[in-house]
Amino acid sequence: MSFEQNKRRIQQSIAIAKREGARMRLGPELEISGYGCEDHFLEEDTLTHSWEVLADILREGSTDGILCDIGMPIMHNGVRYNCRVLCLDGDILLVRPKLFLANDGNYRETRWFTRWQYGWTLQDLLLPALVTDATRSKQTRVKIGPAILQLADTSVAAETCEELFTPNSPHITLALNGAEIITNGSGSHHNLRKLDKRLQLITSATCKSGGVYMYANQIGCDGGRLYFDGCALICSNGQVVAQGAQFSMQEVEVVTAAVDLSATRSMRGAFMSRCEQVSTVPVVPVIHVDFKLCGRPAATFPAPPIDVRVHHPMEEIARGPACWLWDYLRRSNQGGFFVALSGGADSSSVVAIVGNMCQMIVKEVKEGNETVLQDLRRVVGEETYQPDDAKELAGRLLYTCYMGTSNSSQATHDRSKQLAAEIGSFHLSAVIDPVISALMALFVSVVKREPRFKAYGGTDPRENLALQNIQARLRMVFGYFLAQLLPWSRGMRGSLLVLGTANVDEALRGYYTKYDCSAADINPIGSISKEDLKLFMAWGAEHLGYPELANVLAAPPTAELEPITADYTQLDEVDMGMTYKELSEYGQLRKQHRAGPVSMFRALAAKWGPVSPLGLSLEEVAAKVKKFFFYYSINRHKMTSLTPSYHAEDYSPEDNRHDLRQFLYDASWTWQFRAMDHLQQEMQQDMKKRGQGTEHRKA
Predict the structure, then answer these.
(1) What pTM was computed for the model?
(2) In the annotation, is 591 catalytic?
(3) How many whole angstroms separate alpha carbon 342 and alpha carbon 408?
């Protein structure tokens, strides 16, 4: 919805492309309005403002001498379409609506748009009067639909984001109809380990049938949980010849390449089975354009193939959420971040990511990124501030506090203090026992009974749980109090964004207190698994310069909410009744493989059961699955108040848009569990007949 800024960025990208000698420019999906407008797409204002921006771009000469592919929402015959608008020399050549919409996972495009359902045909689109006035030839109508632009020396066609991921992608038909250059303006978000799939699809798009594929993507936080991870690409005949950054603090990044179209024609002409297929596909409409895309052959040299850069998954965790946090901070105009630093794995991972954000900012400023510098000066409230050291910057942007109780250990206190020192955060330690005691005294005065921990004689599990929860919830209250006033106490501007520190596995299991330190403004690790966070800490200790992360990793995870006695120390995995590794398995099966209790049992019986190296009995596997679904269902209500989190894993249980399920369950699962028991008996009988199931147990 930032039309002013989006117009500036689009025109800046066109200017850079011209300066680089490009004759064609491709931008990302819905770049005029922004991809994440969601229900704002239902407002006529959004469509009108998009046309107004396009009219300015045409009127102000940005498209002179360069073919521009621009993304925006458009209404035609009372139907909204997600469109590409191809422009040249102040006029519109074609409006190309999206043929297949993204409507799974985080995407809900069919809520706002309709796919083009008229096949390979064109219709007339009546332009708004303000656009007619802006076009050079005073156009009143232009063609809308899928088509090929036949230029004087080559042919160009477009597809959009999701269409690349469909089994029968439009680029197949377009290439067989002679399109030599395919563009794809995309709005694709970051997922851990996702870039490989995207690269495979893009290279395969031209590997079999030849041609040039241009891919542009949004970059940054578009106002929600997703981080769009850029990585613009130009691919020629199956080889990447240009690649942009995947994680960047640049507002505008342009990649350019010269390509040899004669190589495409040679490849296609020699591929005889392809030549046979050309006559079998639907005929795509052609629009003739008197414009040459190619320069003089003697003056231009094609770009050679390059080695594609793919980040290590741990580097993805370090950089993706860091860029997302920076976008959120600068756009919300707050003064920094606050983290309740416990000395445990989750909060330590969060502060390490913020520390890396500071490292990235300092690097960007040293490399001359004026936008980052100006945004940073506005955030810190100093017009002449020049960051030279990431630790010094962290002391301005990151505030941490260890909130100890009588149940806390010296080890976690020391780890939090040391890690804060390595990162450079403004760090405090507080003992919150007086607040807990005051609340306990109030409770006893009202109820006339005093709850006790199990270790101190409590007999009801509700006592033990409530006494743990009140510690966690008071940390949240005190944390927000600090976040509002710590900058004030130091004479600095703004308030702080409170960062959540719950990982995806604990959210899935419900192993956290509702409205405790998991309740925050945003959470950079909320959809990252505990297993990945462990790997990240090991990686970060070495690569981020925070060696204390290794000590955090070596310590067993514990909430430290119960009294430590001679014969009892609270441990997370014991409390949960399952390991974090098991939780990752449950999460992937539940969401990514769409498994209910019976399907999950069947899958895990093969992976964990008697004939597997783990060698569990079928009864043990069934008991684990039942335990997971019980705790998942009784805690699902917590998802309704889960802090908005950076989306990194497809098995995230976040119920705002990604994982849409009820939050009130029949936790007995009687029908499903009975079906599981029957399946277990059938498996046991079958294994007994075949003499299976004892070998691994004996081993």
Answers:
(1) 0.91
(2) no
(3) 9
